[in-house]
Each structure stands twice: as structure tokens, then as C-alpha cells.
Fold:
Amino acid sequence: MKTKDQKSTSEGIYYERVDELIDKKFPKLLERAQIDGSHQGMDNNPAVDATSIEPNISVYKAACEAIIAEIMQFIMPASSNQEAKMEADHYKEKDKVLDDEIKQKEEEKRQAKYKLGNSDVHGIAIKLIVVGVATLILSTGDMFYNTMSFLMTGDNTFFALVLAGVFSFAVFLFSHVATFFYKSRKTAIQRRMVLIGTFLLVTALFYGLGIYRSMYLENHDVHVSPFTFVIFNLFLFIVSALLSFFILPTWKEIGENMSRMKLLAEIAKCTKDVENLKKNKEEIKKILYEKSQGRIRNIDYAKRTVNRVNKHYHEMVSHYINANINARKDGKIPKCFTRKIPDLNISDYEFIIHSPVNTKSK
Structure:
């Protein structure tokens, strides 16, 4: 289509070249039809009993069909139709690929949901947070409580506080690790050995700290047995271990929950992917719609132009008949003049909008 010749009005588009062609040719054809009608009428042609007017008007019919062919080639050339079809086929294929990807993602999402079932994915995470906060509170208190022991190293208070913090964190971390290890043991003997070993180890550590703490207090004329501090540290350690035992899950349960978290993330990813793919489909529809608008306008103009040519054709035949009747010497009206005028041969022209859903109109 020659878009450079295209103009727009409130009724739609039009092509100056096409309008000029019609305005140039049809007045001449109309004049010729009137002259031919008069000349043939003087000879009483067609005969009164003639059943078809087509032999007499075939030249005008052929001229109109030729004009339509020329106009259609200008408005919607074959190359343009082929290009539009290839473009539509490309987007249809792309749309189909997106549909297949959406189905695949929906199936992956369905399988992930099936594997996940009704599992409480966030329950373990909440437990971990609760125990983590409780451990932080306990270790913070223990850190300040142990600071005086590390002051005996001779360094400043800040360094003693850092050492106490590291020590307290390590001890309470050990309380959870020991509990996990205890839960993983299969027999009662193994569990007793874990309890005894843990108790002896932390008691020795706390007793060593208690000695340093007692020495620090002795420098201030305060005498307290190291076992007093051991009991206090053991109490905090046992509280942390009990929290871990009754609230925290086992390593196996944490591993299973991690798998469920991955499934949950997969479901969220599939949902997001499906949303993006559907947006891509909408973009394709938008592109096709925008690209088809120009072709729709051309189709509308082509239809209006064909109707216009057809109207001129009937006008020519009407002028031919009137001129023929007025010029006839027999004063009679041939039968063919009262019958339907032969239609223009425009059935081969098919107006097609190439889109995901192909629409045809004639």
C-alpha cells in the first residue's frame, strides 16, 4: 500500500490517486455509454426479444472490473498481503510458544503444590526465630556476667567484654549443637553419654571462669566460691538447651523444611513467570491489533471504493438503457432491459485481516 498517498478524514482514510483515477475515467465511460446507447438504439439493438444485456454493455463491465483490479493492486498489493500473512503467522507461532510455556509453568506449579501438600512451611522458621531471640537475651546477660572473669587477663574493659561475648556465644551455640546431637542418637546409652560428656565439659569451663571471677572479687575483698558461678552458668546453659530440646526441630526436620521452602520458592517463581508470560501474550495481541488497524482501514476503504465503482457501473448501464430507449425507432423496450443487470466480477477479491483469529469479509 502506498502510505505516502494516504489521507485521513472523519470517515476514514482515502487515497488521492484512487479518487483521481475514478474521477478521470468514469465521466468518459458514462459519456461513451450514453453515445453507444443512442447509436445502438437507432438500429433497434438489442432486439426486443433479447434476454441478456451483457453483450451490449460488456465493454463497460470489463472497464469497471479493470479499474477495480488496478485500485486493489494499489491499495492492497499481493506483496502486502503476503507480508501481513507472514507477520501474523510469526506472531501466532510466538503466541503458541508462550501458551506452551504457560502450560509447562502451570504444571510445574501444580506438581510443587502437590509435593508441598498442607505442610506448615513457616512454623519451623518461627521456632528458630523464637529460640534465636531467647538465646540472644541469655547470651547477652551471660556476656556481661562473664566480663569480670576476663578482666583478670589484664586487658582493658572493652577487650574483656568482647572476649566474654565470644565465649558466651560459643557456649550457647554449643548448647544447641549438643541438643541436636542428643536428638540424633538412637539408643539410651548414646544419649546418656552425650549428656554426661556435655555436662562435664561445660562444668569444667564454667569452673575455670568461676575461679577467675573469684580472684577478681577477692581483689575487692569479696570472697565467693567458684561453684556459685558454676551453678549460675549451668542454669543459663540448661535453659538454652531445654529451649532447643522442646522447641527446635531436628537436623532432619530442618532439612525437610528447607526442601519445602524450595518448593514454596518454586511455586512463587512459577506464578511470577506465568504472570510475565501472560503479559507477553497481551503485548503480542496489542502489537497485532496496532498493526492490523492500518490494514483494517485499507480494507474499509477498499470496500467503499468497490461499492463506488459498482454504483458508477449501474449508473452507466442506466444511461445506456435510457439513451437506447429514446433513440429506438420501433418504440419498444427489449426484455433484457427489464431484467437484472449482470454483476461485476469482483468475487475473487477477498478482504482478509491477518490476526490470531483470522477474520474474512467480502
